[in-house]
Design a protein that fits this description.
Strand content: under 5%
CATH architecture: Up-down Bundle
Number of helices: 19
Bound molecules: 4-fluoro-L-phenylalanine
GO cellular component, one term: membrane
Distance between the termini: 22 Å
Structural class: mainly alpha
Membrane topology: Multi-pass membrane protein
Number of domains: 1
Region (Disordered): 495-521
Shape: globular
Protein name: Sodium-dependent transporter
Number of strands: 0
Main location: membrane
Length: 521
């Protein structure tokens, strides 16, 4: 437990910008458009909206409520619910640790591609350039043959900036950074979308994305995709929102904030869909091929398809600058949020001050990140660990968490009461139904569905040996680490402000700003 009174957001807007900054990430830009396109186009918006209302927002509200009520990071907050529940908290911390190590490297690539856009340095074959000249990816996944300077240095720069921002604290670091980054991101992205819409073939791209295929609604996999997108995109299940909400004041409006953050995230997602598909429409029309031949997602979209398009348009460098800068900013604010989960959890557990915690814990993540992901095998590690940690880490931790809170501890009504004390939109029975029934059913179904595909064919065409070593072991390892850390006896080391029974609803602790003086956050 920390000796200091807990940090607080400077304003409600500051918290919202940070929460939105975490939610808007690579998932919005390179995942949503492709998911929508593959799963019924315009018709996908219906399951997507239902997923948002029945699971995404209820879970987001749950995370905000737990964070604000107990005012601690996930392990310590869940421990207040029930001692063994801290395992889920440490499990989420381990997941965040893993994701942070590879998420950062994508930002490093993005930074290099801002530079490559000038003069279209990827030449005629962006794919060959990406894996060859730039990443120098080894042919055999699994063996590190050397390090790539062109990735190492920008990655080091990413880590130095992240650690600096975190060391400056919640209000002066994270909040300020998001207040600057998020409006800039929206501005850059709007210019990009306007430019994309003026390209030849843009309308065909939008047609391809939005033309509804209503028959898709009858397919289970479309619904799984919609819920999967919502969970990832809203950053629920990582413990991020519990951590961010732990810096809220006691009068903060929880449900209203969740609605604002949720709808802002989805609006950006739809904007990204428009920008990406207008651009792909142009790509298809200039190559004279149908859209489905150019539709891409993830790394292939950002680092192969977009460079190809940039090379074929006038003043492509400008488009490249806008696109890669947006990608880097969107990812950066998500990376900050995920590292903060690990730093805050260690701080709350050990009583360490912020700067040593950032240097020690953040420094360790940075080191692992540099060692693994600036190597010539980085791209293979990234691909496998990303897939497994998402499918069997985040979603599984979220599933166990809702089951424990809703069914084992039966704590939803108390949490509902807590949220309703200060929230403009009151939670009714629907919240209990969504979290107690719909969310666990959907998450459970998603798990079964993913496992079925996993055993049908090897992910990404990798060998079973590689997937066991760098996929399964990462996902299962995160849980094992979570359990092991929970076993360390918990002696409260610091002078944490004593909390009244039932969480943080009582009077302000000594040294804390009384709520009456701080209504904003
Ligand atoms: N909501 C984020 C996204 O859409 O990219 C999910 C996320 C991923 C958050 C990785 C944080 C992170 F480090």
């Amino acid at each position: 437990m920390s000796q200091q009174p807990r940090e607080r957001w400077g304003s409600r807007a500051g918290f919202l910008f940070a929460a939105i900054g975490s939610a808007i990430g690579l998932g919005n830009i390179w995942r949503f458009p492709a998911e929508a396109y593959k799963n019924g186009g315009g018709a996908f918006l219906l399951p997507y909206l239902i997923a948002l209302l029945t699971a995404g927002l209820p879970l987001l509200i749950l995370e905000y409520t737990v964070g604000r009520k107990y005012r601690q990071s996930p392990p310590a907050a869940y421990r207040e619910l029930a001692k063994p529940a801290q395992v889920i908290g440490w499990w989420q911390v381990a997941i965040c640790f893993v994701i942070a190590t590879y998420y950062a490297v994508i930002l490093a690539w993005g930074i290099r591609y801002i530079g490559f856009s000038f003069g279209e340095q990827w030449g005629d074959d962006p794919e060959k350039f990406l894996f060859g000249e730039f990443l120098q990816a080894s042919e055999t996944p699994g063996d590190i043959g050397g390090y790539v300077g062109g990735v190492f240095w920008p990655l080091l720069a990413v880590w130095l900036v992240v650690l600096l921002i975190l060391a400056m604290g919640v209000r002066r670091g994270i909040e300020k950074a998001n207040i600057i980054f998020i409006p800039s991101l929206v501005l850059f992205f709007l210019i990009l979308v306007i430019r994309a819409l003026t390209l030849d073939g843009a309308a065909d791209g939008l047609d391809a994305l939005f033309t509804p295929d209503w028959s898709a609604l009858g397919e289970g996999s479309v619904w799984v995709a919609a819920y999967g997108q919502i969970f990832f995109s809203l950053s629920v299940g990582f413990g991020i929102m519990v951590t961010y909400a732990s810096y809220l004041g006691r009068r903060a409006d929880l449900t209203g904030s969740a609605l604002v953050a949720g709808f802002a995230n989805s609006s950006f997602e739809i904007l990204a869909g428009i920008g990406v598909f207008a651009t792909l429409g142009f790509m298809a029309s200039s190559a004279g091929v149908p859209i489905d031949e150019v539709a891409a997602e993830g790394l292939g979209l950002a680092f192969v398809a977009f460079p190809t398009v940039i090379s074929s348009m006038p003043a492509g460098w400008f488009f490249g600058l806008l696109f890669f800068t947006s990608l880097v900013i969107a990812g950066f604010t998500s990376l900050i949020s995920i590292v903060q989960v690990v730093v805050a959890s260690v701080q709350d557990r050990t009583g360490m001050a912020r700067v040593p915690a950032v240097l020690g814990v953040g420094g360790l993540i940075a080191l692992v990140s540099l060692l693994l992901f600036s190597s010539d095998n980085g791209v293979h590690f990234l691909d496998a660990s990303d897939h497994f940690i998402n499918q069997y880490g985040i979603a599984m931790a979220a599933l166990v968490f809702v089951i424990i809170v809703a069914w084992w501890l039966r704590r939803l009504p108390t949490l509902q009461e807590h949220a309703n004390l200060t929230s403009a939109v009151r939670l009714g029975k629907w919240w209990l139904v969504c979290l107690g029934i719909i969310t666990p059913l959907v998450l459970g179904w998603m798990m079964v569905d993913s496992l079925r595909t996993e055993f049908d064919e090897n992910y990404g065409g990798y060998t079973t040996d590689f997937l066991v070593k760098y996929g399964w072991s990462v996902a299962i390892g995160a849980l094992a680490v979570g359990i092991l850390i929970s076993l360390i006896p918990w002696r409260r080391t610091g002078g944490a402000p004593p909390r009244p029974p039932g969480g943080g609803d009582g009077p302000a602790a000594p040294g804390e700003t009384p709520d009456s003086e701080r209504r904003s956050a």
